[in-house]
Amino acid sequence: MNSSFKPFAAGPLCRAAAGALCAALTMAAPLAAQAQSGAASPPAAAGLARFDIPAGPLGPALTAFAGAARINLSFDPGLAEGLTTAGLQGAWTVDEGLARLLAGTPLAARRDGANVYTLRRLPSAPTAVLPAVRVEGVGESAYGPVAGIVALRSGTGTKTDTPILEIPQTVNVVTRDEIAARGARSIVEALAYTPGVYAPGGSTDLRYDNIYLRGGFGARNNLDGARLPFGAYSFGMLQIEPYGLERIEVLKGPSSVLYGQNNPGGLINMVSKLPTATPHREIELQTGSYGRAQAALDLGGPVDEAGQWSYRLVALARDAAQSSRYTEDDRRFVAPALTWRPSAATSLSLLGFYQKDHQVPLYGNLPAAGTLYSNPNGRIPRDRFPGEPGWDRYDREQYSAGYLFTHAFNDTWSVKQQLRYSHMRGEARTAVGYLLNPVDMRTWSRTMTRGQGTGTTLNVDTQAIARFDTGPVGHEFLVGFDYLDMRDTYKFANVIAGVPALDLFDPVYGRPRPGLKDLIPRIDTRQDTEQSGFYAQDQISYGGWLLTLGGRYDMASSATRNRLTGGKTTQDDSAFTGRAGLTYLMDNGLAPYVAYSTSFAPTGGTDFESNPFRPTEGRQIEAGLKYQPPGSDSLVTLSAYQLTQDNVLTSDTTPGRPPGFQTQTGQIRARGIELEGKANLARGWDLIASYGYVDAVVTRSANTDIVNGVPESRQGKKQYYAPAHQASAWLGYKVQGGPLQGLGLGAGVRYIGSDWGDPANTLRIPAVTLVDAALSYDFGQMQPSMRGLSLSLNASNLFDRTYVGTCVTATACTYGAGRLVLATLKYSW
């Protein structure tokens, strides 16, 4: 790979995409018709699906059936080994089709819910010893696709493929279908309808996915279970392209028992698209607000006739902007993957991605006067560009590679190992404001800054899993060891002298300004961190009772070098964390649970006596109720929690000591409730509803702030980035019959309660209610020869509401994103 890193120019592919989309809309019917050979098949009757599955091995036939019928079909692969089928042609209901496909075999399908089926051996058939391996990509697994918006399994909460109903902790999952239905451009937008998730400023800042969970605790991001870089000053971060993901999972609360050092609010795990056992082909063209032009493709399927090799290739190119002038949001992304499955018991997947971003972000500091508060000159326009064209930019190059390996020795023991290497390199330049002239209230003094950073992680996680019984008690026992090597660098330089001020109400750009050589270095650091941890977990079942017990011991070390002064600080930490949870599964689909979990996160620095700081520690008690009505494709989760973080840094106020030192006497407590319901309802209806309440308070602190000229303690103040109330609802509908069959409608509303923007609680961010909408049409419902062609229209902030997203200080406020409209033409075959 070329080591030079330069922003790229807009490519011809994306410059032409908007025009191509317009042309494709007028030519869709003849193009789709020409893509089909032979006479058009008559449309299937309501409730039927059309199949064309040839005779042959049963395993691939079941895979093809699940894809065509859009159902979740789960089974151990050994069940189908050596069995054949006569195939299936024509239009059938799911139940009839499965029965015919399985005719003559010792197997039958059991319906567990709407679009959810499990394959089982008939009682009269002899029982064979089968490896306990789940077929990924056939029906729902914790690591594969989901049909619709309701995920019923997760691999994040336990590191095993477990029903969400059985996990004694809150797990929220956003599926690929939900991401597409709402037209989400980023992880922040994908999680906009998830309770207890808050992104300051919403989706205005497209550079990062900064997300806070359960009371202002920053979330750490994982990809396929592996930790992603999180560098010094939050700079060395990867931003994952959502088009390359199958699902996004949020694990709420302390999670160190499985993942090591983490903040107590929880973590976000993103699951990549993996190779598929059945052919999958999709292309998209997208256009929208501010000249957006995007093209994407998603290809996958078997490589050989035996099905031992399969592949996936996801790619995307985008030229876009955030406003009518100066901004840019360009991306190039490619993610190849290859899976080798020599037997039903063994699987090896190689996967990775490369991404290059060039942005001129609209995100930038504006004063509170004119945004949050009144200004005698009026309101500062929402699309005001506060930077300097030709200087402001954000460039990032990132890549990742690794593998996922599984092997089942027998029906009891299996092993898993995953390895991932991730790297990013970025540069940010901005002309950032720091002072509003108090006389004219319009002249914005600015400084020119440049930040450069890298972030690198190497993760290796090795696990052994045993599934066995001790009398009437069942066990799923997990033991593992993981290793993390994380390195990041950060340089920062700026200059104030000679930087032209900006009139925020009548801006003039392009005045003489300093150059790169005039910047003064302020920060130059390198930090190396290593962590290794041993962990064990047992999921114990007895009747309807499930007891989850887990423990972990971590060793972490770090070395931070100040390359400006030559100084070096080292630190070694160790910690034990655990989780204990009890769940009871009722026959009516209710599952009450209670759990206690802990977390830790190393804290850099030393106190007045040069003692290194201890890790911050988190603990949570959570009780809740999950509900999966029998025979339905839905899941409801209600939880209540109290979360406490200890050893928070606070000012050292010991008499006789100079100011500027810190101690670890601070504490933050968050209490809240969260409710989420998702359902694929009958007759084409989909529903998402959520509500979150949190009361996050600084319960111990020696820090003081000057408020209206008077010193005030932070103790008792509300935690910022933690709105007390958040609520959302999304309702989708697809017309099931008549002349409008194939038409899809969707509408959503999001309420974000008022929030504090600063620790002193002086900047009150008002509440806001936003409306989103979607419209789609499946051309295949109108004409069978156009099967696979669809058009969707998405609008976020439909009524173009102007609101303040966040304020960190009185000179650092940002607006929330305005209305954005996207039109997407997709063809799948």
UniProtKB/TrEMBL annotation:
Organism of origin: Achromobacter arsenitoxydans SY8
Q: Which GO terms describe its biological process?
A: siderophore transport
What family does the Swiss-Prot or TrEMBL record give for this protein? Belongs to the TonB-dependent receptor family.
Q: What is this protein called?
A: Iron uptake receptor
Residue ranges spanning the membrane: these are: none
Where in or outside the cell it occurs: the entry states: Cell outer membrane
User: Which UniProt keywords are listed?
Assistant: Cell outer membrane, Ion transport, Iron, Iron transport, Membrane, Receptor, Signal, TonB box, Transmembrane, Transmembrane beta strand, Transport
Signal peptide positions (record): 1-35
One GO cellular component term: cell outer membrane
Lineage, top-rank taxon, reads Bacteria
